[in-house]
Amino acid sequence: MKKALICGIGGQDGAYLTKFLLAKGYEVYGTSRDAEMATFSNLTRLGLLAQVKTLSMAVNDFRSVLHVMKKVAPDEVYNLSGQSSVGLSFEQPVETMESISGGTLNLLEAIKFLGADIKLYNAGSSECFGDTGEKKATEKTPFHPCSPYAVAKSAAHWQIANYREAYGMFACTGIMFNHESCLRPSRFVTRKIVEKAILIANGSKDKLRIGNTGIIRDWGWAPEYVEAMWLMLQSDVPKDYVVGTGKSISLKEFIDLAFKEVGLNWRDHTETDTSLFRPNDHLRSCSDPEKIFTKLGWKAKYSNEDVVRLLIKNTI
């Protein structure tokens, strides 16, 4: 039985990855900064908490990371930890850098220090690319991060590449484009839109207050993206991969689809709030996932439009 350590198991991806790995017969360990106080609500919602061994670990504390690594002795480590909100990173840039970049470095150093045969997956982000314009982003597209979050993810990406090349470690990054589910916190715009649309359809007089609806993103379905993470660690050679649907829609289209699903015209129930605009943001983001399909056989089954419908269906 393989052992997997999921850093940041309490989040959306951590919960779905746990479900996936348990189905594969893994023994799953998961970390949180304070496992005794954490609710692990997503694991509970999926009925998985009793099947997981949880531990306390602060990724920005090397001693904490090393202690857990020695205790668990995992075959695979999935680094899904760190501050996960682009918007919040403008308010908490230091914590964002420490938890994402510093945390990744501590994991790499711990594996190197132990000299163990451990495979490491790092959760990267399409935010590193910035505005891709009319072109789709590949693994060779230059980075142009537009937020503290994206800067931190970019640093972590190159740390992974450096340790892989310098020390021969099996470490890789999944450059993940947006992927959504009903386990997303309400602060994420997709959840905010869906929840508000349903509330209004049920009689609420509130309006959806939204920022820049012109942004264009590649939105996928999170439960199927965790398979891509796993596949990267089953490969013979560690490589970085772009993970996305290959198509994008605007936030305006996303809102339109969500309100249509509940029988409403979005224009009657929304208003622009300039306070929700980010200090620096990119307009267009789209993936080219050809490499992961060619090399690992992974392809997104659900389109951007499917994601909106799934979110509405699973929230009502």
CATH topology (level 3) name of the largest domain: Rossmann fold
Q: State the helical fraction.
A: 40-55%
The N- to C-terminal Cα distance equals 38 Å
CATH class assignment of the largest domain: Alpha Beta
Query: Can you give the mean pLDDT?
Result: 95
Biggest beta sheet summary: 7 strands, parallel
Number of domains: 2
CATH architecture label name of the largest domain? 3-Layer(aba) Sandwich
**SSE-based structural type:** alpha/beta
Strand order of the largest sheet: 3-2-1-4-5-6-11
Query: From N to C, what is the helix and strand string?
Result: EHEHEHEHHEHEEHEEEHEEHEHH
What is the helix tally? 11
Annotated CATH homologous superfamily of the largest domain = NAD(P)-binding Rossmann-like Domain
Q: What shape does the CA trace take?
A: globular
Which range does the strand content fall in?
Answer: 15-25%
Show unreliable segments: none
